[in-house]
Amino acid sequence: MRRSINTGFTILGLIWLGLIFWLTTQVPVRDEAKDWFGGLDPGGWMAWVFPTALFFTIIAGLLILFTWLAIRFPETPCKGSLGIMTTRGDRLFISLLGSAFICLIWLGVMGMPVWGGLAVALIYAAAVFRWV
Amino acid sequence: MDKPLNNRAWFLVLPVLALVAFSAVLPLMTVVNYSVQDTFGGNQFFWAGLEWFEEVIHSDRIRAALGRQILFSAIILAIEIPLGIFVALNMPKKGVWASFCLVLMALPLLIPWNVVGTIWQVFGRVDIGLLGYALSSLGIDYNYVNDPIDAWVTVIVMDVWHWTSLVALLCYAGLQSIPDAYYQAARIDQASRWKVFRYIELPKMQGVLLIAVLLRFMDSFMIYTEPFVVTGGGPGNATTFLSIDLVKMAVGQFDLGPAAAFSLIYFLVILLISFVFYTVMTKEQETP
User: What InterPro entries would the database entry show (chain A) (predicted)?
Assistant: First the structure.
């Protein structure tokens, strides 16, 4: 049973990697260089571009990874600095939600680019997984 | 020793996940895509980065709408939750009157939102509306079309009329599930009415109150139809809440990029506040 679950998730992981590779092949070429911000489906109503497609692929990857972790290593919820019982999934949710607000606050206070905000968000996420 | 959680049951929600993917996730993905691009129609998009988010964050108009929205939701929760509990506590527990009250309380919930707006729009009019005419006859200068305070009062009273019964019905269901043994024990201890409420009824209603608070918060924070029908967001922008402003931006001005960025921030704010409510209200139920 455990082996079949691991095999299933390995296949999912490979599909995920294949998806990222496929996305890079869909990036349009302009002036003999890849236009990373060009439309992946010109004329399509969903208006996909590589950065947003990569964003959702990473979120999907995180969900797959945490689902596998939850099945492979079942855990007991624990109480952290916020005083609430959290599982790994809860901590991921708190990290993602908090990171969104950190980037928005960075954008509001410091303006573009938001790489600094992203770095703060990563530190915040690490802190959430360690202490919350 | 604590029992470890087995999360395999989550696979059972896969069919729902597939449905939600079509009804919610795909539109959400599209909104994210629109929020980082600009368009002039014809499905032609141009990369704009985070420009729209910056514009929305610095917009005075949206900040004002957010302020109005928070104030509105706070007032709604402050009135509807205690009032709903009070009504539920005073509803008959059994017999014909219990059924009558249940039907009566359910009536406002059955009326479509735009009809509620129309009812109150007519009801509040000074020339032909019962409320407006009666207040004018009493010498009260009431006119929700011109006066911002009157417009706010009308919208709040309308929402209270429409939705308090939801809170009352949820609380009533919570109260009905309390076994008689609790009340008998309270009588033996000669507990006062307040103590029965504080230590028996309120803790037993916590679960349904959580649902009531979350539903009423989310609904009031996203309110659109009723104030739009009654006041149209006016006078001026006095009752222009976030969703009215968002629709003006997306449909009225066809600014899809800024509107998408605005709706994502709006979504994140609702998600955050709902999470905080949920966490605070379930904190006491958790075992250490």
Answer: DUF2160_TM
